[in-house]
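Anyone up for a design puzzle?
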């Protein structure tokens, strides 16, 4: 009884997802903070860049984003339509933790090893919940001791008190062969700030009203 009444309005607030449509353009990996690494995803081996990606939304200024999608590919100059939501989107595996990791570490990346470790950690958490390089759907080989140490510290971090809100750029279409247009996460540039949809605003209003009614009957 009481516990359900207490938490139900809060759950409505959490479920009120914000979203808006945008176009994202990829300008290439930021090679200042990127390493060339060997990875495996679902048994498929790849030689890839691990680090921040230079992107822009709706023709705005470039900013750094990170990949949370190893099932699809992108090339420099690609542009595709996305739905901008947040890392709390239930369609994003382990989204809350991905948002926390990005918020704590992305702003302080200052070397190739740090950029690579952050991207590898995001891939591992997204694919496997953060189980390390040697098991699960995502694996990595021949990673330097420095990158491995940084990676291990990130995936083991409890991230206590870190916000989980980061933009999630979810591709609307993955190409005619379903092999293009990756899903990305990144900061909140002014021209891509998610705005709650009307239905979401209504749910938020219901949640707040329920909270007020509960306080009134105490």
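Challenge accepted. My sequence:
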């Amino acid at each position: 009884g009481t516990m359900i009444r207490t938490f139900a309005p809060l759950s409505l607030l959490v479920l009120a997802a914000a979203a808006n449509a945008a176009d994202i353009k990829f300008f290439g990996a930021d090679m200042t903070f990127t390493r060339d690494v060997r990875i495996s995803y679902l048994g498929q081996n790849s030689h890839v860049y691990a680090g921040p990606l230079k992107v822009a939304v709706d023709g705005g200024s470039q900013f750094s984003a990170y990949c949370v999608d190893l099932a699809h590919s992108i090339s420099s100059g690609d542009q595709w339509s996305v739905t901008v939501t947040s890392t709390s989107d239930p369609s994003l595996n382990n989204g809350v933790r991905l948002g926390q990791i990005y918020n704590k570490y992305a702003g302080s990346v200052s070397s190739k090893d740090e950029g690579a470790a952050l991207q590898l950690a995001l891939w591992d958490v997204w694919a496997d919940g953060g189980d390390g390089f040697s098991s699960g759907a995502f694996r990595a080989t021949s990673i330097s001791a420095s990158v491995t140490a940084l990676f291990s510290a990130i995936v083991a971090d409890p991230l206590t008190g870190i916000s989980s809100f980061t933009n999630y750029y979810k591709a609307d279409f993955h190409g005619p062969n379903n092999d293009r247009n990756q899903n990305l996460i990144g900061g909140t540039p002014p021209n891509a700030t998610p705005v709650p949809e009307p239905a979401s605003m209504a749910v938020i209003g219901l949640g707040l009203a329920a909270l007020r009614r509960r306080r009134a009957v105490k």
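A detail worth pointing out: Helices lie at 2-15, 95-105, 112-128, 145-156, 198-216.
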